[in-house]
Write a structure and sequence with these properties.
Blueprint (H helix, E strand, L loop, with lengths): L8 H20 L2 H7 L1 E8 L4 H23 L16 E8 L4 H13 L5 E4 L3 H14 L2 E13 L2 E11 L5 E8 L5 E9 L2 E7 L8
Parallel strand pairs: 1-2, 1-3, 3-4
Antiparallel strand pairs: 4-5, 5-6, 6-7, 7-8
Helix pairs in contact: 1-3, 4-5
Length: 212
Amino acid sequence: MHDLGNLTRRRVGAVAVAALMAGAVTMSAFGAQAQEERTIRMGLVTFLSGPAAGHFGIPARNGAELTIDAINNGTLPAPYGDAKGIAGARVEAVVVDEAGGATKQVAELRNLVQRQNVDLVVGYISSGDCLAVPKVADELKILTITSVGSKPVKVPFGNFAAIGIQHQRAGSSRTTTLWCVEELGYMPVIIEQHRKGKLRFRAVLTKYTPLD
């Protein structure tokens, strides 16, 4: 795990935004289902109490809520377009406090899936929670999207500070990580896939031309 301790409030909010962007892209693959259900219920897990709330959790929640409003109202910045919702379906957040430790978060995840009927879960800042949740998520067959921190990346058209967003589908040993750049509208500049802990695929964006 990359160190999250030096992230500013703005950066942690950006992590939530980038995670939601990744969630939007992922859920768009299920367009027909989204059209039928009309609402995508998204579990959002972040610190709302305790020492981490002010620096990490509340900015993340605020950034996520702004992004959900933009998704539902079709006001996301380019290159995401002006379509409302995800494949026509509105996004509804179910917010959970991450405070309390890994055992509590495993119980909260079960509640989100089995009682709250969420379609996916986005969040988790604590490294302990990030380690505890995936096994249970796989058992519950729920898509999870988590942050793996930030790091500098070098691509052919420049050097950037990138935010890593990782997701893993239920029942799959493959994890996909998108390294997203805030100043490029959270566009992923590097995509990596690992299977059973080994890098199997890496794609790097070689050219970027902004649209007018």
